[in-house]
Amino acid sequence: MAIHYIADQSKLQQLTEKLQQAEEFAIDLEFDRNRYRYGFNICLMQIYDGTDCYLVDPLSSDLDITTVFPPIEDPDIQKVVFAFGEDLRLFHSLDCFPKNLYDLDVATSLLNFKPASLTNLIKEVLDIEVNSSSQQSNWFARPLSEDQKHYAADDVLYLLDFKKALKAEAEKHGLTDWIEQENAVFDQLDYSDEDHNNLIKEKDKNDLSMFEWHVYKKLMAFFDEVAKSYNKPIYHLVSKKVIASLAKDPKKVQQWNQQKGIYGRLKNDEFKDQLADIIKQAVDEAEDQSISTSQKATHTMTGEEYREMRQNQSRISHLKHTLMQPIQDKIASEFGTNAKSFILPNRLAKEIIAGEAELVPDYKVELLRRYSEELDIDLSDYI
Asked: Hey, which bits of 177-278 come out as E strands?
């Protein structure tokens, strides 16, 4: 088995043509999400076709990574993956929508394996020791070290054999169709509109008034653009604590150049003046809109709203305990506690009771109906 490093267009085109003739291949991504650079970025693509391993360098200026997208999107070619959620989000952000995925994490969950890393699962199932030393390395670094290359290759080299072993177990336990249904859900997902930076959190509102919150959001948007221009995560430039302090006391901008925890290149009068202008604009907007300086940004429920919320929580908790808990127990006894946590986790049980569940595979609905009938539980209002 050879490991091929692909950094030019002609070799990528050859790989693409080869993959278009395949029945299946394993694939994985190494990426950076606001750790070393700004945004959600693909750093390496690993592919194993059962014979050779290919490390495709999307950072190379000599290739166009979209060239290899067609076989990845081809529904007639199966892509074998492991815990592919974040990778799928990244692909969607690149306007690539992988189809016909076989996620081994789904299979191990339904087969009642304990939650574990790919390294540990490969050791358990295939009795192979896999290198994991470069997992947290900087995947933007070029050239990649030999250790990084071998680590990246190991992420795909054993997936096809792993799938073969799991498929045999799934057939033995009659779970093949369930795994197929779960994997089919991936084809229906669309993360293309998702905000992968997601800078502003609800908890950021704590201790801020509505007025201050307006200024804070404007400052975050400004610093987001600055971070993008420097190609750095925003927290490499300034902390949220500093931004919140400016929102609370705009006069602090005058001490900007003496502020600790600020990216050095931003400590100058020109940037300070620009920041002061942004703050003034935000303050003027808040005043023009008569935004309250006393009302808290966090919503404080009225007594009636709180009682209604508690009653609803209590109702869902009660229904979950009386209707879903017995079914969860049956699933655990028949398929194992780890499989139960995948098939009907507490979150899904509550979503079903609340009428908020989406994309529930048919086998789960059938299970719920079968067990509710066996246990004489009325789920007619929920499934």
From this structure: none
> Do 186 and 218 contact (CB within 8 A), yes or no?
no
| Domain-wise residue ranges, the chain | 3-186, 202-288, 304-374
Domain 3-186 matching CATH 3.30.420.10: the answer reads: yes
- For residue 55, report the phi and psi dihedrals to the nearest 5 degrees: -105, 105
Q: Tens digits of per-residue pLDDT, 190-203? A: 999 998 888 899 99
CB 40 within 8 A of CB 47: no
The sheet with strand 3-6 has its strands ordered as 3-6, 53-56, 40-48, 24-33, 78-81, 101-103
Stretch 168-192: mean pLDDT, rounded?
A: 97
Distances (CA, A) of 43 to 27, 57, 365: 14, 7, 39
Rounded to two decimals, the pTM is: 0.91
DSSP 330-343: HHHHHH-HHHHHHH
**Contact (CB, 8 A) for 215 and 20:** no
